[in-house]
Amino acid sequence: MPPATESLIGKVAQVLSRAPAYSRGVKESILVAAATSYGAKSPDDLTQPTGFDPEAARLFEAIVESAYLVANADGDFDDTERQAFEHVVVVACDGKVGEVQISALLEDLSEQLEEDGKEKRVQMVTKGISRPEHAREVVRVAALIAHVSGGVSPAERALVEELALGLGLDAGATEAALAEVTTALSK
After folding, report:
1. Measuring CA to CA, which residue among 81, 82, 70 is closest to residue 157?
2. Residue pair 75/61 in contact by the 8 Å Cβ criterion
């Protein structure tokens, strides 16, 4: 990967891990908070206490799936893009979710997208999000991932807009998320 891309990927991971600009008094993003619980999931599904919160895990999966859908918006998600995506998520989550877990999740998401198609997967992501701050985080993360390739393509923008609409956000939510991302990445 060229150094400029690595730099952009690193910036995206850093911005993903920070609380969004609209969130005051919060130090980490909802993605990181949800990753903490998702990462605590017992691989053996034992009944011992693990710190696992199924609701937070579902939120984490929805946020990652929204990003995955954006990454696939142009219909091309090759091995290099997949590796970059995995790296961004692992780094953004500050190691709270391991590479093996992210790789397995991406494999599941790939199978679901292939079986169900984009429209159904967007519906599945949006129906699982009920809180406005979670909806805004989904859109923010999707907007950040759209920037990984060096700019937001029309297909990626359309998908971010589709997510925002499905989440019940107003028409300005996509613009606000894209503007915040542009500002954050330019620092």
Report:
1. 70
2. no
CA–CA distance, 146 with 159 (Å, rounded to integer): 10
H runs (alpha helix) in the chain: 3-17, 30-39, 54-71, 79-92, 99-116, 118-127, 132-147, 154-166, 172-186
**Interatomic CA distance for residues 64 and 123, integer angstroms:** 14
pLDDT band at 1 (very low <50, low <70, confident <90, very high): very low
Q: What are phi and psi of 100, to 5 degrees?
A: -65, -45
Chain-centroid distance of CA 38 in Å reads 14
Tens of pLDDT, residues 149-159: 777 899 999 99
Q: Are the C-beta atoms of residues 94 and 146 closer than 8 Å to each other? A: no
